[in-house]
Amino acid sequence: MSAEATNPEAHPEARPELRRRGRTRLDLRRLGRAALLGPTSRDRLPDAIGHVAEAHRAHHPDADLSVLRRAYLLAETSHRGQMRKSGEPYITHPLAVTLILAELGAETTTLTASLLHDTVEDTDVTLDQVGEEFGDEVRFIVDGVTKVEKIDYGAAAEPETFRKMLVATGNDVRVMSIKLADRLHNMRTLGVMRPEKQARIAKVTRDVLIPLAERLGVQALKTELEDLVFAILHPEEYERTRALIAAHAGERDPLPAIADSVRTVLREAGITAEVQVRPRHFVSVHRIALKRGELRGSDFGRILVLVGENADCYAVLGELHTCFTPVVSEFKDFIATPKFNLYQSLHTAVATPEGYVAEVIVRTRQMHRVAEAGVVALGNPYATATTATTAPTTAAAPTAPTTSTTAAAGAGVSEAAADPYEERVDPTRPGWLSRLLDWQQSAPDPDTFWSVLRAELAQDREITVFRADGGTLGLPAGASCIDAAYAQHGEAAHGCIGARVNGRLTSLSSPLSDGDTVQLLLAQDASSGPSAEWLDHARTPAARIAISSWLEAHPDRAMATTTAARAPLSVVGARGGGANAVADLPDAPVRLAGCCTPVPPDAVAGFVVRGGAVTVHRIHCAAVAQMRAVGRTSVAVHWRATADCRVTLLAESFGRPHLLADLTEAIAREGVEVVSATVEPPVEQRVRHSYTLQLPDAAGLPALMRAMRNVPGVYDVSRA
User: What is the reported pLDDT for 331?
Assistant: First the structure.
């Protein structure tokens, strides 16, 4: 805000879109002097904001400009006598910020708050005065972008300012719109700062502001911020890229001819469309050069096709793929599956007979507005019918809803507009912002908040997974079942013992993909908790902070193994090896095979083995085929009338405390004796138990297996 100042002509080559639109660069120094010295009548706007009014009326023809006049007069009066480091009157800064937002199509309330955004921070104007003069919404937005006092927070002032701003953005996205425009103007005018301060501001812009601009979909601000940061932090690469672009400017550009061919194809197909050539910005050219090596003429820009309706987008795509050679690997449909930042378009690439490959973007004009201005294009999300005149004349939600938007329709809009300090549901608040607002409450330490915020914003993609109850969860790409558990259940996820993904059991460390359905399994035992290994698989700040806090509160259990490995139990009443199986071989000892543990009334087969004993297997046991293959003598076997039997069961479960005791208790309740039990070491929170059991009646086996499956954490019980 007030800290950065200087040369309004800094990096003009990083603003090719100004040349494309034919808009001349405003002389802010002249406008500032006019603001201080030029007379203005009371019934018209001051000359200094004529450009703002012109840009605003282009998007909102019926907007009431009187409130802008009052806001400008208050800002000019309160900043009078203040100068920027470059020597310009300070009023040039809020004017420039407001002009940026006006060109993006921001509504009147945003522009009013933008003109006043530094008054409370840098002048004697108070928030109460702003509220009395311009209403609670403007007061809330101005408060949201006002920095915290450094004298109160010291070194933590910057992270705490961003925390305050993000919380305010959770209630009103217009707060961040102003901050982004504010940072853009400060980056444009950063030349008079010391190099080390330029680098510090550029790094914060790169790590925090640019990702926020990307997530809010404000591409027009994001691309210029990227170029300005690129010039400061990577001057050598910037100069090489600038030289590439300058060299290309002197060569024949094939894109205009390709655009003419596209116009001809669409005109002959009867499709009304506007076809433009869009030069790439500096960072985009740099990335393409790294990806492709030597650049060709068609790599310095892309072709943009604007149409009226969604169906026209696909009609254009069909004509392009019919009349040109499509590069199939370059096709992406962001209309059917919009990005999490509201972006919608069709992306493709076509090859021409001359050998050029041109990237083509197809979108409606409304999609284009949202792609350039993001949330700014949505206007006032809290506008009621009575305030519709301040809403954009063409702004609307994207034609296909994004899955990352966590809006609740009709959630008390009129009350929210009346008191913006009350928590309100924002139709533009995406899932990533909701997650950020949740975990920041658990990060009271400014350093933790600052480092985790940067890590969170470094996640450049988002996935949507479906809950078992039909709801959805928005998660960063690469998130695991652990992240889904904490996103859905909060601290209750400490007791998560497993998950089903798309109906199949899986470990908590399993990564999730876009569109997966996840069912999270929680332990009934309140003492259950996460292990330190969970931190290796947690990607979201909310999960990592919650797990770390639990481990710090339970240091004695942080390294403990949840289930004892190979815990033997005492043998209870050993019985004869053959139990109630009888072989048709007199005096031959009979043994039940341990591989399949047959019980009545299983169909069985017997084989004579070394020593003359008869081993009994279930008829479908794999060992039966092996016995026959090696020529073992087959013996008929039948069951005695007595019903008792011995069987080995395998129980597979998710590890948790007291699981072995609970399983043993369930077995005892069925009146079954445990001959022996073995518990294998846990692998990825999953444990395998083996029980040899003596049943008083074989008919009770199905009930026993059901009882074991009903023990919390057990997901399968089977015969050995």
Answer: 92
